Amino acid sequence: MTNKILTRNNVKIFGQGSQPVIFAHGFGCDQNMWRFLTPGFEPDFKIVLFDYVGSGKSDLTAFNPARYDKLDGYAKDVIEICDALALSDAIFIGHSVSGMVGSLAAIERPELFQSLIQIGPSPCYINHPPDYTGGFEREDIVGLLDMMDKNYIGWANFLAPVIMKNPDRPELGAELEESFCSTDPRIARCFAEATFFADNRGDLEKVKTPSLIVQVTDDAIAPVSVGEFMHRKMPNSRLHLLEASGHCPHMSHPQETIKVIKEYLGTY
Amino acid sequence: MFRDDGKIVEVNDKLLDLLGYERDELLRLHVEKIFSVAGRIFYQTHFFPLLKIKGSVEEIYLDLRPRTGETIPVLVNAVRQERDGQTFNDSIFVAMRQRSQYEDEILRAKREAEAATRAKDEFFSVVSHELRTPLNAITGWAQMIKNRSIDDYCRRGVEAIERSARIQSRLIEDLLDLSRIISGKMKIEVRQIELGEIISRAIEVITPAAEAKHIRLEVILESDAYVSGDAARLQQVFWNLLSNAIKFTPKYGRVQIRLGRVNSSVEVSISDTGQGIKADFLPYVFERFRQADNAATTREGGLGLGMAITRNILELHGGTIKAESPGENMGATFTVCLPVTIVHRNENVAGEELWAGKTDETSNNHSDLEGLNVLVVDDDVDGRYLMTTILSLYKAKPITAASVAEAFEKIESLKPDLVISDIEMPGENGFSLIKKLNAFNEKRKRKIPAIALTGHVGQAERLKVLKAGFQVHLAKPIEPEELLVVIANLANWSNNE
Questions:
Q1: SS3 labels along chain B
Q2: Looking at the domain B13-95, which fold is it?
Q3: CB distance A140–B41 less than 8 Å?
Q4: Of A14, A37, A158, B304, which residue is the least packed, with the fewest Cβ within 10 Å?
Q5: Is B424 in Cβ contact with A136 (below 8 Å)?
Q6: Å from B259 to nearest chain A CA?
Q7: Positions of A marked catalytic
Q8: pLDDT in tens, B93-131
């Protein structure tokens, strides 16, 4: 079983320390996105990388839409990986939607996590006027799904049968794997819907694990007001504003991001 | 050109035109601001990570949002470049307003066509069922009336009604079968059957038609052949092939049926001295709705579904069919190939007596597996333990392997009598194993049979496994007695090879 989970989620472990740090990628990406951040943690920590089922080099056959159409399914992946590795008191670093995924996992199994570091998180991406501004209207997300359809299937391929139904032509899948982090457009769509239509605002107050919210001052996907909202609702949280633009500070500003996280962990 | 932090550092006039910005305005913006909202999300979640990790992106579809007016769909290529010790992302945008409209149209048309086909399939399925209902009343009443004392005129009429209704009923059954094939609902009830018996029954049915045309039927059953299959469906297959052979063979011709064993398969060939098949039609013989354009099909009617259904039934059995013809008026040969397999004993009714000695006395009659070397391949230690326990109970000699690589080393060095393999394993899986085993068996006189263990039940899985070359598919959880029966039979099979 242990082995199956580690293969299923393409789990990679390295680093010279003993304190485990789990890095959880966001929607649209896979564990590769952490490669600019991990060097900063390698000497002192045990680094655990993984791909959610459906992303990267995970086992696509393990994908079950009934499990992965909501964030709980992704939180289960995290918990199962922790159990498979017998981890406890881990530091969880999650980007974007994975901030919330880590929170859900920590609500369910608080003993697994010592702290949660959330980079550009959001409990709800859709606006709920007048009290809450998530940043997007439903139509925006529909537009995104449309754009994904066109990008994932591609002009050259979109008239051909859906990739996964095409075991005779594995090169089709390989080609997509080269370009995006999920090979199956339907799986990517499922993750997109689970991410952008989620509303976990009510869960925030249940997160007792100490949390650091790393918020970029100019982030189109998670506006500062969202970070402030989370900080207000989460009892044990700290908010750090990173003077930058964009949604991926761990890729665009890796050194600053490492510094912020390490300061929080008291290891800088 | 923009930096990783999103700052735009260089832009050409064309893009400024497109966006309706002045240069100094644009140079103050984060690059994502030139995209639509959906485009920004896609930029942040896909475009930028990919560009940063892989160093370049190609043909990414995004929407530009100009200062005024509608969004402009663009294709973007970008590459990372070093300049003066800094990294820049150099990107090229190609506006594709019209092309994007074509794409949308084609995509929409494709979705509509798919929906229409689905609707048609459903309609088709409903119609086929509805057609059958009144037919029951027609044939039922025709029989009742026939059994009363009626005059010759009425009798001839009723018999014509009955005959026509029977033909109609067969056409409808074909339509229903096709509908089942389309919807993936075609099922076979598998049990142990003797193929020779099935063929004999089909021959009985078509004998009157053959005699009417003075066609000589030659039947050569070279060996008995136990296969696992659906008796009614296989009879349908052979009836179909034989009635076609007779349909297309002229008076005083000959139809030959030959059954024989070829390696681990049973081969049945049906040859006729009929009109043959034109070379250009041969590839389409098994396609639905396709009929060779000739006098016989026009004369005999039919929907052109029989061969498509035949092939589908055979594929569900893990079998194949091929058609050969040297040319027009030179006859044709259809060859059916079915794997010799064993199945679930619970489903085994016809073959019950075959196991009579074991069904009641499995506990004290294990001699069949005594000394048999069985290789168990499973990455899961509990799975291996269970299998070795069962096998040891039946006095077999289990060997285990935790991976395909290890399994293959043991196959080569120990040459087991039988392999039982899990399908889902990390890295190389059961399919990879059977591929290697097939190649290994090619070179050997005594073949090593293999059983696939999967967590899935169902036709598709079974088919996939059998097609890959496993002799038997067993679904977990395994019942010890079932395993015993299957192994005993497979071991006999390989001894007889």
A1: CECCCCEECCCCHHHHHHHCCCHHHHCCCEHHHHECHHHHHHHHHHHHHHHHHHCEEEEEEEEECCCCCCCEEEEEEEEEEEECCEEEEEEEEEECHHHHHHHHHHHHHHHHHHHHHHHHHHHHHHHHHHHHHHHHHHHHHHHHHHCCCCCHHHHHHHHHHHHHHHHHHHHHHHHHHHHHHHHCCCCCCCEEEEHHHHHHHHHHHHHHHHHHCCCEEEEEECCCCEEEECHHHHHHHHHHHHHHHHHCCCCCCEEEEEEEEECCEEEEEEEECCCCCCCCCHHHCCCCCCCCCCHHHHHHCCCCCHHHHHHHHHHHCCCEEEEECCCCCCCEEEEEEEECCCCCHHHCCCCHHHHHHHHCCHHHCCHHHCCCEEEEECCCHHHHHHHHHHHHHCCCEEEEECCHHHHHHHHHHHCCCEEEEECCCCCCCHHHHHHHHHHHHHCCCCCCCEEEEECCCCHHHHHHHHHHCCCEEEECCCCHHHHHHHHHHHHHHHHHC
A2: Beta-Lactamase (3.30.450)
A3: yes
A4: A14
A5: no
A6: 32
A7: 96, 219, 247
A8: 999 988 888 878 887 888 898 889 888 888 887 888 788
